[in-house]
Amino acid sequence: MGKEIIRLKAGSAIAERLEKRIAFVQEYIKLWRQFFEMFSEGFEGRKILKRDEEEYARVLNSLAHHHYRFTAMVYPEMKETDVIIRLLCDTISLSHLKGLSEAQLSKVQIDWHTIFIDMNKALGRLIAHRPLTPEEAALAKQKGGPPPEAPQDVAQEAPQVPSSPGPGL
User: What is the mean pLDDT of residues 66-88?
Assistant: First the structure.
């Protein structure tokens, strides 16, 4: 059986920081999906326009730029985030991706999916620490009681990172 999930105390400063972490991670995952959608359909018969390359570069650069903050926000739920940078470095442009063999492009897609799954597992673990809503608490009482809430001084805090733009990447 896995380790017990400790819920944070509702209204605590730590719970508020957790919500900010969750929001940032959700935005980063959304951008990660947008990145994939740009090459998921393959390139056969597709003409790559300058605006497509510019949009791809914008998304790629945003993912790279926010990688450090993502790493800080998702830690320790996802410890291996260097794979993100490695994949970004291997996919520098749509023209580059178009030049890959079918097998190489398939590997990029598999790597993307593996990272996507890891990101979502980490997000789920972060969400599991949220305080119970009143409805969840009532339901939990019917089923034998809610999971323990963490005392404010014991719950793990997000690492302190330098200020940067809000969750909207």
Answer: 97
Q: Give the N- to C-terminal CA distance of the chain in Å, as an integer.
A: 37
Q: How far apart are CA 9 and CA 15, in angstroms?
A: 7
For the stretch 12-68, pLDDT in tens is 899 999 999 999 999 999 999 999 999 998 898 889 999 999 999 999 999 999 999
| 111 CA to centre of own chain | 15
What's at 23, amino acid-wise?
A
- CB-based contacts of 74: which residues, under 8 Å, 6+ apart? 21, 25, 81, 119, 122, 123, 126
The CA distances from residue 114 to 61, 70, 121, in Å, are: 21, 17, 11
**The amino acid at 16:** E
94 Cβ contact partners less than 8 Å away, ≥ 6 residues apart: 38, 39, 43, 48, 52, 53, 56
